Amino acid sequence: MTKAMMDDPRRIREENPFESMMERFDRAAQLLNLNPDLYAVMRVPNRELKVYIPVRMDSGRIEVFEGYRVQHNFARGPAKGGIRYAPDVTIDEVRALAAWMTWKCAVVNVPFGGGKGGVVCDPAQMSLGELERMTRRYAAELIDFIGPERDVPAPDMNTNEQTMAWIMDTYSMHARHTVNAVVTGKPVELGGSRGRREATGRGLLFVINEAIKKFKLSPPQTRVAVQGSGNVGGIGARLLHEAGYKVVALSDIFGGIYNPDGIDIPAALKHLQQTRSLQEFPGVKHVSNSELLEVECDVLAPCATENQIRSENAGRINCRILAEGANGPTTANADKILHNKGIFVIPDILANAGGVTVSYFEWVQNRMGYFWKEDVVNERLSDVMVASFNDVVKYAENHNVDTRTAAYMLAIDRVAYDTRMRGIYA
Ligand code: NAD
């Protein structure tokens, strides 16, 4: 792409995830004929916090990082959402991700609002000690804003169970007692839920299982291309492979691998773990991340990051079902193109809701002090994902709209109802 294309204001606007989210929100609100007072309250976040985080680096010098926490909506319960560490985190991205959490929790009917956090940093360049110090200081800055009844963070890109354990410990040190319900996605030994690590990938599998029935496909007849091989993509690919699907493509940030006859996913994931990339994996065609999105397949599952499918490449997407494991992988401008191609979209706020669903289970278990077996977690997750998939599909049919619009309408309607019943404190 040329510099002129990169600097094109239309492209910058298309790739602003908050604008993409708002375009869908506005369309759904208009179709719902949302009351103007509710519209005014629901279109903006409840609270946005920006913090500066001093960290003693291994060199002995202090470096100051910028961090955010956006609490988008509390109408249905405490804010809920992950924390992301990446060099390109922006407030607009965090704001969009927080709003998506509000709609996602409403789609799967869990009693949370939406929140999201991010720290502008490059975790690949930081030692474990630096990451721990940064996480603890960020958590200390958030003390007055988070908590089991207020806002419950979880992992997202480049954060994991260890990050959550540090946040829980920092919060607990200040509270003077252990508060494990302040975060979800913790290690099982510290009060995490069994099945949480796999929950987003497993939820994705459950909705793909439902979607292929509409196309009269069975798993072995279904070719799946997965972008990303982290918590969502890697675990999703493994579970799809175990369920008999033919996973034909997989990628990491450096590029992808492709084999139309199916990839040996356990071997590819082992290679990734050992070499930290898929680059040298043998017996497959090596493709770029953008080529991966255009391979011929039945299900395309973008599970890496935002803005992967845009107006410029949407016309070349070659799948029947788009299952959005990532948040915001498709821009609002690309929606129309996919719709005209007849692609069945399982939108992000439904497809990747397995994570927040089991996070809700984890929060419930923490508050009960009683832990469920993994079978129980997975069965309850299946119930939620299948019911939510059917709710969205039925809503789309009844209102003659596409599935993404249906998911937004369903979510906005639920949040609007609760806001109206509570009343606006104005
Ligand atoms: P992760 O850090 O575990 O994995 C991210 C994967 O994407 C890695 O394979 C990485 O190499 C790849 N990647 C990162 N940037 C990329 C780029 N620019 N191009 C191509 N590949 C890139 O993160 P994750 O937790 O798997 O999250 C992935 C997506 O799923 C994010 O959009 C996240 O918000 C969303 N999500 C995660 C969860 C969860 O429970 N972890 C839940 C819901 C949604």
Secondary-structure blueprint:
Elements: H1 3-7, H2 9-14, H3 17-32, H4 36-42, E1 47-56, E2 62-73, E3 79-86, H5 91-107, E4 114-120, H6 128-142, E5 151-155, H7 161-175, H8 196-214, E6 223-227, H9 233-242, E7 246-252, E8 255-258, H10 265-275, E9 285-287, H11 289-293, E10 299-302, E11 321-323, H12 332-340, E12 344-346, H13 348-351, H14 354-368, H15 374-399, H16 403-422
Parallel strand pairs: 3-4, 3-5, 6-7, 6-10, 10-11, 11-12
Antiparallel strand pairs: 1-2, 2-4, 7-8, 8-9
Helix pairs in contact: 3-5, 3-16, 5-16, 6-7, 8-9, 8-14, 8-15, 14-15, 15-16
Bound molecules: nicotinamide-adenine-dinucleotide.
Largest sheet: 7 strands, mixed
Low-pLDDT segments, ≥5 res: none
The distinct bound ligands, ions and cofactors come out as: nicotinamide-adenine-dinucleotide
Strand order of the largest sheet: 9-8-7-6-10-11-12
Give me the CATH fold name of the domain at 199-351: Rossmann fold
C-alpha Rg, in Å?
A: 21 Å
CATH-defined architecture of the domain at 199-351 = 3-Layer(aba) Sandwich
| SSE run | HHHHEEEHEHEHHEHEEHEHEEHEHHHH
Average pLDDT figure:
96
Q: Helical percent range? A: 40-55%
Classified in CATH, the superfamily of the domain at 199-351 is: NAD(P)-binding Rossmann-like Domain
